Amino acid sequence: MKIFYAVQATGNGHITRARVMARELYAAGHEVDFLFTGRPPDKLFDMQIFNHYRCRAGLTFNTDKGRVNYLKTVLQSHPIQFIKEVKNLPLSGYDLIISDFEPVTAWAATLKDLPVLGIGHQYAFKHTIPRAKADPLAHLVMQYFAPAQNHLGLHWHHFGQPILPPIIETPEPPKSVQQNKIIVYLPFEDQRKVVALLSTFPDYDFYLYSPETIPCQERCITIKPLSREGFQRDLHDCAGIISNAGFELASESLQLGKKILAKPLHMQMEQLSNAMALEKLSYGRVMHELDRDSIASWLHDDHATCITYPNVAKAIVQWLGNGMPKIEPSWIEQIWAQVS
Prior knowledge:
The protein has 340 residues and is an alpha/beta fold. It has helices spanning 12-27, 70-75, 79-88, 103-111, 136-144, 191-198, 228-237, 247-256, 269-280, 292-299, 312-321, 329-336, and strands spanning 2-8, 31-37, 54-56, 63-64, 67-68, 96-100, 117-120, 150-153, 181-185, 205-210, 221-225, 240-243, 259-262, 285-286. Helix 3 packs across helix 4 (103-111).
């Protein structure tokens, strides 16, 4: 098949999921054209697997000091440019259009009456899953940001709903773990405040992956630039991770058996709901502010959950190759039966 695959690139989680899907789609012999929106092209990294991918401005959320700013989001949305991108996106000649919560492609296909398959965590919210209270605008965004006629939602647990486990790498578990090594990834927070907070725990080794270069003289903190390869290497042998409540990184951490401390973005319904699910499932702990006491308590708590997820990407690609038959409960149950 010839596939158009569009990815919301504001966060790295969508791109990480697309990497796994790309590998399986290529292995099955499909021809795939990738589009990424929501981030300037020069801010993308480790994109070799996507070959000659395309970029558009798309839409993104404005974040400021750990919270979504909906007013700035609207003011900086450039609606005229977005409408032009939607109208001018060429989608003819493809056998399948996939959107990982990417709005330009979703709306372009909708206006041209072309079917779209939505694959991603956000599509799980079409079902009854743990959901944080949010204002009506947040619900409208979740519903209309990237519409898809057909969808495969993903989550850490099925909650009795027709959703699938996460699409992630399935590496071998680490042979050894550095008990004092903690990965920190809080890109939407004030990085200087993060450094100041971490510096109060000199007995730990923090590896802070930061979107900006900031000075740091603290021996307990190593600041690293964003890098998929470097991050995966450090994640493999660390004891735990402090991060925002994004779905994909928490999924990878659970797969590797890392303890999790999540700080959800304020006013971001998906992340608040993810934090709720982590606590409900006892998969991780949550702090709603950058709080020293919460970090101290978590650092001294060795509880971690390790979940072995199957190769969900391969199962989806096989389903695509079979002509996307009606999703039966038995297929969903068969995949979840492989989770341990």
